[in-house]
Design brief:
478 residues; alpha/beta; seven-stranded mixed β-sheet; binds nicotinamide 8-bromo-adenine dinucleotide phosphate
Length: 478
């Protein structure tokens, strides 16, 4: 009888195939399966020589080809397909077997699936995997959630396939239940904010500083040598440097300005709204993609709605440096918000997330990998219960140093009619957060006027209502 495989992968599209190859490349025997058998056959034709793979056509044979307790990575399209695969696997599995959903599942689904599997005597793990197809093959950032004992059984394999930064693998058990997919969701949300901020900087460098795409590309290349050093800044330089073969123009200039999305940014924003956490950067990034999608409406509005008619300015070195600083400060705010959201979710769900570890495992393999995550890790190492990243000296100073430039850029963009929703909402968040007294006193007054929602006083304990439309007297309501 053939030797049993240590782990199985079902779902051999680009992510599953590359993950299976990555695992096999570490000398681990891997069982592979895909709903459509032709894909499994193709996989074996292309990669069988790379490692010890056992391919099966039926789910039953796949399950039987695994040593027990079985460990099965499900890498299929998120949503109903994951439930379908679990339903198919469940009657074929034994008590204690482990189903690992490594796709981009929505965390409430993971919470539900964990309970359903537990009721059937199975262990379930929701695992975030970032890094796209190249990451899956060469070393992703992995965010495993679920039963810690189940994680111990796959830890060695996960640590061997993850990206490594400074000798530390980019994987750690994140927390129970839906914690892994939650952290992956916020990772993707931060990715939205990062990309939107980069797009705003590109817009300003193009439409305010008057530079062409290759020149902007060189600026990003230069920025990638400093505080902004990150995968996304690096590939921005490369994308802007690309020439279109057909027209000879910069390729970005012939790409339609409509951004797609798969929904993880929206999930992050909705969850922040549910938690009551201000998450302006990520949410504005989602809205900006929505606005970009209204291409035909924008074409009409461009001819109808008045703007300030921006005059292009010549390349101005101080403007370029101002934009760099505005980008950095806005990025600090976006991360501060994303980490505050994870903290709130951890408290709400009792996940015990260690935020410094999240920064650690995002330093390599994933799309938002960046030098700057080292600073975030250090901040949480020193202050594990930090309310807000802006409050540690490194970030307090970084934003204080950048704020004049940040404000100048926002004034200039606004004067010239260039939209900068993520830059400006990040500054408004910063200004709002650093204010001891804001204007919500008036909001409370209005709410009390029209709805008797009551208010609190700065000088006395208790709740009060004023009979605004009657005799104007104040009554205590508690
Ligand atoms: P896709 O998300 O395109 O899914 C294709 C796979 O799902 C195929 O193996 C397909 O089998 C299988 N599948 C479907 Br569709 N419906 C099924 C069903 N009812 N039962 C069983 N299998 C079913 O693949 P992907 O791009 O490799 O992504 C896999 C997961 O990883 C997704 O959750 C994705 O969001 C996540 N992810 C992707 C990336 C990326 O860069 N692409 C990065 C990080 C995470 P078939 O061959 O029979 O149709």
């Amino acid at each position: 009888m053939a030797e049993k495989s240590r782990i199985g992968v079902t779902g051999l599209a680009v992510m599953g195939a590359n993950l299976a190859r990555n695992i096999a490349s570490r000398g681990v025997p891997v069982a592979v399966h895909n709903r459509t058998y032709a894909k499994t056959e193709q996989f074996m034709a292309d990669y069988a020589s790379e490692g010890d793979f056992t391919a099966s056509e039926s789910v039953a044979d796949f399950v039987n080809s695994l040593e027990t307790p079985r460990k099965i990575i499900v890498m299929v399209k998120a949503g109903k397909p994951v439930d379908g695969v679990i339903e198919e696997l469940t009657p074929l599995l034994d008590q204690g077997d482990i189903i690992i959903d490594a796709g981009n599942s929505h965390f409430p689904d993971t919470v539900r699936r964990t309970a359903e599997c537990e009721a059937n005597g199975l262990r379930f793990m929701g695992v975030g995997v970032s890094g796209g197809e190249e990451g899956a093959l060469l070393g992703p950032s992995i965010m495993p959630g679920g039963d810690p004992a189940a994680y111990e059984e796959v830890r060695e394999i996960f640590e061997s396939i993850a990206a490594v930064v400074g000798g530390t693998p980019c994987v750690v058990h994140v927390g129970p239940g839906g914690a892994g997919h939650y952290v992956k969701m916020v990772h993707n949300g931060i990715e939205y904010a990062d990309i939107q901020l980069i797009a705003e900087a590109y817009d300003l460098l193009t439409n305010v500083a008057g530079l062409d795409a290759p020149a902007v590309g060189k600026i990003f290349e230069e920025w990638n040598t400093g505080d902004l050093d990150s995968f996304l800044i690096e590939i921005t330089g490369k994308v802007l440097a690309q020439t279109d073969e057909k027209t000879g123009k910069p390729l970005v200039d012939v790409i339609v300005d409509q951004a797609g999305q798969k929904g993880t940014g929206t999930w992050t924003a909705i969850d922040a709204l549910n938690l009551g956490i201000p998450l302006t950067g990520i949410t504005e990034a989602v809205f900006a993609r929505g606005l970009s999608a209204l291409r035909s409406e924008r074409a009409v509005a461009a001819k109808t709605l008045a703007g300030p008619n921006p005059a292009k300015e010549a390349d101005d070195e101080s403007l370029v440096e101002d934009i760099r600083q505005a980008l950095y400060a806005s990025k600090v705010v976006a991360y501060a918000q994303g980490f505050a959201q994870m903290r709130a979710a951890s408290v709400e769900n009792d996940w015990g997330l260690k935020l410094g570890e999240m920064a650690t495992i995002w330093r390599g393999g994933c799309i938002i990998r960046a030098r700057f995550l080292n600073r975030i890790r250090e901040a949480y190492d020193e202050h594990p219960d930090l309310d807000n990243l802006l409050m540690v000296p490194y970030f307090t100073e970084a934003v204080a140093n950048a704020q004049d430039a940040w404000r100048r850029v926002i004034v200039k963009a606004t004067e010239q009619g260039v939209p900068i929703p993520a830059f400006s909402s990040s500054l408004s968040y910063y200004d709002g957060y650093r204010r001891e007294r804001g204007p919500a006193n008036l909001i409370q007054g209005l709410r009390d006027f029209f709805g008797a929602h009551t208010y609190k006083r700065i000088d006395t304990e208790g709740s009060f209502h004023t009979r605004w439309a009657q005799d104007g007297t104040e009554v205590r309501t508690d």
